[in-house]
Amino acid sequence: MNNRKITIQFLIMERKMITSFLLLLVGLMSCSSDDTPSDPVAQNGNLSLAVTINEDVEEKTSFRQQNEGSGIKINIVDAEGKTVVSYASIEAVPEEIELPAGVYKAKGESNSTAQFGFEDPQYGGSSEDFSIQSEKLTTSSLECKLQNAKVTVGYSDVVKNQFGTYSSVVKSSLGQLAFSQTETRAGYFRASGNLTVTATIGEGDSQLTSEITLTSIQPTTHYAVTVDVEQGSGKLVISVDETILAGGDKGIVITPIEGETRPSYNTSIGFFTKDGKLYDANGMEFIARGVNNGHFWFDSGNRNTAIKGLTPIAAYHSNTVRMVWQTNYVPSQWNNVAETTQLRKMINTAIDKGMVPMIELHDVTGDESKENLLKMAEYFVRPDILGVMKEYESILMINIANEWSGKTTTYRDAYKEAVTMMREAGLKHTIVIDGSGWGQDMTTIFDYGQEIIDNDPQKNILFSVHMYQSYRNETTITSNLEKAVEMKLPLIVGEFGFQHGGTPENPIQIPYKHILAECERLGIGWYAWSWKGNSGGVEYLDLSVDWEGTELTDWGKGIVNDVNGLENTAKKVSVIK
């Protein structure tokens, strides 16, 4: 589009007591354009928070036997990181917590501050961002995981049977624990720096000593130390089995789960398309449910406004975000931050929030020149940008050009050449291609889509239609989406709005709820336009009143709360935990 372009429960209760005098006063004030309007009355919501503890089996008993008051403190934190309410323990959290509208997260942290000790597992964690909406019931949960490192020491049967005395000392920079031959408890250390394990067996002249260092110890990790004597040499040996405990894996995780088999011709480590569907690196079908966000326009000058907007976007359940970018990056306009640094920050933030990033170039919106389209492909293969793209192959999708509008065979030939250029440079990502006619014409997709796919050695193409005034009729929406499915052409609705075009007095209405319903029925992904920042007469397409997401517009409420909206249909991609 051109220049337009969690689970916590809330019970919203509006509490307004306004006297006739105040109503009269507000009415008088509103008559004067020179007066600053008063702030609206804040609408609060009641939070019902479910907290769970992800415990390793061996830790359950010891954790529950801790002294009273050494459990988990629960904090509710706002979008700026400020704690707005705190509870000393899980038990102290009431069934409902009243909060003003906004975006929050719940954080748990252990009341124990010990840096090392026996039987002192310390649990903590952070929920996903969640939002409070006016007169809206929402749900979310907080899972607390082990935050320190667990250490156990065991001795082999050889040691136990042949030596009368044996012991070990486990030491960190913060202190040490002695594991005698009768010690069966687990030790816990602050996950920082290294651990040194020193084992001693025997006495006097027959005494043996050995030492091993564990570098960069990690939380949610069990270091199981075994002390043994090597057969033949009689040498004292220390071995360590390092196991990630439940909840320990973080970031992008590709696991051997039962998903769709990647075609032999596709050698990507990320998304792939097959028989008209999009799959993630685990072979699990991914149906996009997200929004567009204007990063290039609103992150410059060290503002990072759109990046900050990713927090509420995720809180309102988006599983992906389409990120506006352009090729004319000037470092001096970005506080001399390198473009690659800014791109990584943008992409990493989306991933950290649990969303699949899709980058798109907005330079040639509405353009019909083949040469200009190829300039977009040239941008992605530029050595510095190419390096960033390859770095995120497992999770990133690349939308070559927003609404480039070449016609007929020009469309076909230009995209075949652009895709070939990108593949020869080593980009194996899912490449997203918009329809012609400012993204709204699917004729080129139907006429040349399969040929473009067949020309791609990775056969990893995802087409995108933008549904604005050309889709004012429900029958047009249904017939086009159904045809793409029948032809097994992978498709998303990359942009759409609730109205567009016409005149200010008589704008063209788009049946967007029908788009949502048909996409849900047919398993097609979508990205609503757009989070915030629209201008030029299409400000009505803002999904949020502010970048922080404290209040959604009616358009935004529909996208989030409809039966086929984000809250009810978005499912997180399997490779992001």
From TrEMBL:
Pfam family, one: Cellulase
Endoplasmic reticulum among keywords: no
Similarity comment: family membership: Belongs to the glycosyl hydrolase 5 (cellulase A) family.
Organism of provenance: Flammeovirga aprica JL-4
Matches recorded under PROSITE patterns: PROKAR_LIPOPROTEIN
Residue ranges of domain Glycoside hydrolase family in the record: 280-535
Protein name per UniProt: DUF4493 domain-containing protein
Keyword annotations from UniProtKB, A to Z: Glycosidase, Hydrolase
PANTHER family: ENDO-BETA-1,4-GLUCANASE A, GLYCOSIDE HYDROLASE FAMILY 5 DOMAIN-CONTAINING PROTEIN
Source superkingdom: Bacteria
UniProt lineage: Bacteria, Pseudomonadati, Bacteroidota, Cytophagia, Cytophagales
GO function terms (MF aspect): hydrolase activity, hydrolyzing O-glycosyl compounds
Entries under InterPro entries matching the protein: DUF4493, GH, Glyco_hydro_5
GO biological process: glucan catabolic process
